[in-house]
Amino acid sequence: MRSFATSLETWCAVSRASLALGHLDRRVGQTRPVAIDIALAARIRTDLADRGIEWQEKRMFGALIFMVGGSILVGVRGGGGLLARVDPVESADLLADAGPLYAQIADMGGKDMGPSWLDVHPDAVDDEAGLTHWLDACLRRGE
Fold first, then answer.
1. pLDDT higher than threshold 90 for residue 56
2. What are phi and psi of 35, to 5 degrees?
3. What is the three-class DSSP state of 69?
4. Buried b (16+ CB within 10 A) or exposed e, 8-24
5. Per-domain residue ranges for the chain?
6. pLDDT category, 110, cuts 50, 70, 90?
7. Which residue among 1, 7, 21, 60 is least packed, with the fewest CB closer than 10 Å?
8. For residues 131 and 125, is the Cβ–Cβ distance under 8 A?
9. How many other CB atoms sit within 10 Å of the CB of residue 114?
């Protein structure tokens, strides 16, 4: 059985390594995990660069958020899912086209985030056509 000191030492070592790799976010003296799908984030960077779009990245909502023109475009969550910010007028059609297994209105802490925010399942963006579809929808919100 591991001692408390050994467990704490291991946790601290993992936390320091994760922070150095950018997997943890430090705010107000506390460390909290921010899990993202690194491969999906790289695909989004490539897509935006290929379109000639400039963006910024920030960690919030438990995701890596891509911002365009100071506004949230899309977020990458752990396991390959997206937090897509879409036009609320288009939301119902996007949800109907995707089906409930592939997209749903996002929630945060058990509260509905509203029709502009959709959780997109990893399977819906596992190929380039799927990712392009959702990024196009997010970009249309900003037009």
1. yes
2. -85, 135
3. coil
4. eeeeeeeeeebeeeebb
5. 4-33, 38-141
6. confident
7. 1
8. yes
9. 12
Q: How far apart are CA 14 and CA 110, in angstroms?
A: 29
Helix and strand tally (H, E) in the chain?
4, 10
Q: Classify residue 123 by its DSSP letter.
A: G
Residue 122 CA to residue 43 CA, distance in Å, equals: 13
- The pair of structure tokens assigned to 142 is 């900003």
Paired strand residues for 56: 67
pLDDT of residue 76: 96
- Residue linked to tokens 């752990």: 78
Q: What is the pLDDT of residue 9?
A: 53
Q: What distances in angstroms separate CA 79 from CA 37, 76, 84, 91, 123, one per listed residue?
A: 6, 9, 15, 23, 10
Q: Say yes or no: domain 38-141 is CATH 3.40.5.10.
A: no
